[in-house]
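Trying the structure run again after the queue cleared.
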Amino acid sequence: MIEDIAKNIINLKQEFSKVYSGTSHIQEVIPLSSSDLFPIDEQHLKLLHQFAKNNPIYYNSYNQEIMNISCIVYEGDINKYWLNSIQYGSSHAPFSPTWILSAYVNALLAKNIGCTEIIDIGSGDGRIAYCGTILNLKSYSIEIDEMLVDLQKSLIDILDFHPFCSDAVKFDYSSLQLNKPAFFIGGLAQMGGLELASGVLKKVNSILQNVYWIFAGTLSQKYAPDPKNYAGWGTLMDNHNLKHIQTITLPTVWTFHETDDTPYVFTKSF
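Done. Tokens:
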């Protein structure tokens, strides 16, 4: 079911990109109700919409039918957050979010494979951790940029996804008392993700075993391929003895005008 929802989100994005005539910096869609193509719990959908409606990134929304599905289109601008996120010497990747629907599917897959917690590293506005909380996973977001953490804190009245303002490489993960965590690493391998992931892996592997690691990859020819593949993460996976579990492809802000969407590579350390 999860894979089918992911494919339908890609189809929805492709159809939306054909008809979208706006000029906003970012744009995405969320269905208004559950359907055969998107069999998502109605309460969960409501919470996804609440996240978008209360998120200052989005300045406009409107109803539109796409693929015969009633949706809400959300338009936004992340320029000031993007610029602020690259000012830190220890920041590894600029802020550029996945779609809210994609964040939900990522969290849903993490729950499906047996994870009990989500730790969203380089979390931006915290959408993956927020979606984990929707699914009753204990969720934490780690973000170095104070402006983005303040944005997250403005959203925890909906659901508390436990945001921390911290350098993820220095954070004390033992304080979270994790059981079966899924660590989502923000940033493509070629855009600072490798350095971030390596630092966090070393820190976490010294205190935990049987940890899931999820990486956002890319198939774009703009970036040098990894000799061991896995959308840019193969060499890191090999160096840290990570086993590939599953890859799921989903839309992100940076692939709205691209043919290929973002592969999320699910792995596990033992």
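DSSP finds eight helices and ten strands in the chain. Worth checking whether this holds up in the mutant runs.
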